[in-house]
């Protein structure tokens, strides 16, 4: 369960590798791709075309079982940027800022800034708005005012060309020159990143921590139309589980509200909450999501060409996205499809080939891992349980010991389990309050989920949004999936007598929580 005492020696090895001389303190490039599930060639997705990310992966550590802590942008991002879980930040929606509500916690970029790095944010890194105090937490986290693309303001505008004029569509392939501003947000972000890499020595001699957040493939799927060429419709495979699982409790269903109100989907008049998407539209959604991902892959390729070989590069998604699996088109759930993310770490001067780790890891692990890789400070301590929260601690675990043992092809034991959660305003899907995105004061139920290498167990329990405490008596609903026979989580095994022993065990581990996993 815990790492061996040879860890110190392993760190020494790593330190020599990363710091052949004092001047070569490595730079850090953190690439965050919005709503990107592992729809990537390197993760074996047959609908994907992502040559640049695949190439990066060929010289990186690739974590195949990495999970976000909540399948919603602001909670997930604040979580991995502070290495604290949604329950510790009291953030399950978009509407609070941790420094004002829970504690003056140090962020990942802030820690680098306070330890001799120049830190800069481009695009969507923190979720904009209240949850980062309308500034991407700039005063604390960044050395320079964060960059936001000017054309991001058109993200919900009527800009998608159709036969009947411009529309507010989900599916939105475009000719870039005809778009407002003659560009797209992610193209602007790429240029800002390239400018920074080119001219940074004009403004600083320090090593950098550069975070670049790409907006696509988040909906609406607006991307240059040419990327459709890589994704002929005939080649698109529909998921095998394009239906609502028969044993799925209603509280677990997320009615994909931010897809249905778009002009092209609204025109289909799909009944709320359980109406089904036509297969032909599902196919187009898969096509457009993958084309938008190829577009981002292309931009990442252009960015990586300009990154020098003294840079630790990390690529993550903030959470997944269902493209028809379970009959859903969204995040907003505890399923693997909504919580599993790509997680790739490239370390300079390690001329290894691709190293795959199937261990369970979490996005909260990113912060302690980067601290250990760069050794900008001592390793982070685990946050105390008492509530006297220290400013700098982690609710994750450094992946460096796992990485070193995978490097030596040794077996290593990571976490026994990982955790995610998702709130609901009630047990039956509603538009108002929005079951997909309830506001804090609307939350009545929390779905707590534990994922082991074999099982996913989820318990939907009453939740007090004032005390932030779950009530584990009289659960609203429960789900159990056995990945050995059901990797897509279609068959809820709860209530089967032969599963009682396993259920009880998982329930106990779920209530104990991440500290004991
Ligand atoms: C929060 O922490 C930062 C440094 O980590 C410090 O500069 C600031 O004064 C603190 N704010 C409060 C209100 O304690
Ligand atoms: C958040 O922003 C407001 C308005 O700019 C500012 O007054 C406040 O100090 C900020 N909060 C923190 C914790 O820095
Ligand atoms: C950076 O410095 C170089 C050389 O001093 C100068 O030519 C260039 O214009 C500067 N670029 C920016 C963006 O400041
Ligand atoms: C949409 O569907 C409902 C029933 O599901 C039906 O009553 C209504 O007429 C339909 N509207 C259109 C525009 O097709
Ligand atoms: C929720 O917790 C608050 C604060 O501890 C308490 O005052 C309130 O009665 C609780 N609400 C319910 C419904 O139990
Ligand atoms: C938890 O739920 C049980 C049963 O519904 C109830 O009796 C108990 O008062 C609740 N506990 C709290 C702290 O609200």
Automatic annotation (TrEMBL):
Its cofactor is Ca(2+). Keywords: Calcium, Hydrolase, Metal-binding, Signal. InterPro entries: Alkaline_phosphatase_core_sf, IDS, Sulfatase_CS, Sulfatase_N. GO terms for cellular component: cytoplasm. It holds the Pfam family Sulfatase. CDD domains: iduronate-2-sulfatase. Residues 26-376 form the Sulfatase N-terminal domain. It comes from the Eukaryota. Residues 1-23 form the signal peptide. One of its GO terms (molecular function) is metal ion binding. Belongs to the sulfatase family. This is Sulfatase N-terminal domain-containing protein. It comes from Ignelater luminosus (Cucubano). The lineage of its organism: Eukaryota, Metazoa, Ecdysozoa, Arthropoda, Hexapoda.
């Amino acid at each position: 369960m815990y790492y061996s005492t040879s860890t110190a020696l392993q760190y020494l090895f790593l330190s020599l590798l990363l710091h052949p001389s004092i001047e070569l303190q490595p730079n850090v490039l953190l690439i965050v791709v919005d709503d990107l599930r592992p729809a990537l060639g390197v993760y074996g997705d047959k609908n994907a075309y992502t040559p640049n990310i695949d190439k990066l992966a060929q010289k990186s550590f690739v974590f195949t079982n990495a999970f976000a802590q909540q399948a919603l942008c602001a909670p997930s991002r604040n979580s991995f940027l502070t290495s604290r879980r949604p329950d510790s930040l009291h953030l399950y929606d978009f509407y609070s800022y941790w420094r004002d509500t829970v504690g003056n916690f140090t962020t990942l970029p802030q820690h680098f800034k306070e330890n001799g790095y120049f830190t800069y944010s481009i695009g969507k890194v923190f979720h904009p708005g209240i949850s980062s105090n309308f500034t991407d937490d700039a005063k604390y986290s960044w050395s320079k005012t964060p960059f936001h693309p000017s054309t991001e303001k058109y993200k919900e505008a009527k800009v998608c060309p159709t036969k009947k004029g411009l529309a507010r569509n989900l599916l939105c392939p475009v000719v870039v020159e005809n778009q407002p501003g003659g560009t797209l947000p992610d193209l602007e972000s790429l240029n800002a990143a390239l400018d920074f890499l080119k001219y940074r020595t004009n403004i600083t001699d320090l090593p950098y921590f550069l975070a670049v957040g790409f907006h696509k493939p988040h909906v609406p799927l607006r991307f240059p139309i040419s990327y459709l060429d890589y994704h002929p419709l005939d080649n698109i495979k529909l998921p095998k589980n394009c239906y609502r699982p028969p044993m799925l409790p209603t509280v677990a269903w997320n009615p994909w509200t931010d897809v249905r109100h778009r002009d092209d989907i609204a025109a289909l008049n799909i009944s709320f909450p359980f109406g089904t998407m036509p297969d032909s539209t599902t196919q187009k959604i898969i096509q457009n999501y993958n084309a938008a991902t190829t577009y981002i892959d292309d931009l990442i390729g252009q960015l990586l060409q300009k990154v020098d070989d003294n840079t630790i590069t990390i690529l993550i998604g903030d959470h997944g996205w269902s493209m028809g699996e379970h009959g859903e088109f969204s995040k907003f759930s505890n399923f693997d499809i909504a919580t599993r993310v790509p997680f790739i770490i490239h370390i300079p001067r390690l001329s290894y080939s691709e190293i795959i780790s199937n261990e369970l890891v979490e996005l909260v692990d990113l912060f302690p891992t980067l601290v250990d890789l760069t050794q900008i400070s001592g390793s982070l301590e685990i946050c105390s349980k008492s509530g006297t929260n220290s400013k700098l601690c982690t609710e994750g675990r450094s992946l460096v010991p796992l990485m070193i043992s995978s490097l030596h092809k040794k077996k290593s034991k990571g976490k026994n389990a990982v955790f995610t959660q998702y709130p609901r305003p009630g047990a039956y899907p509603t538009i108002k309050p929005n079951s997909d995105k309830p506001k804090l004061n609307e939350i009545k139920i929390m779905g707590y989920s534990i994922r082991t290498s074999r099982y996913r167990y989820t318990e939907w329990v009453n939740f007090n949004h004032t005390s932030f405490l779950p009530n584990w008596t009289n659960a609203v609903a429960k789900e159990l999936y056995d990945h050995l026979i059901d990797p897509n989580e279609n068959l809820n095994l709860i209530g089967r007598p032969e599963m009682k022993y396993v259920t009880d065990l998982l329930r106990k581990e779920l209530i104990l929580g991440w500290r004991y996993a």
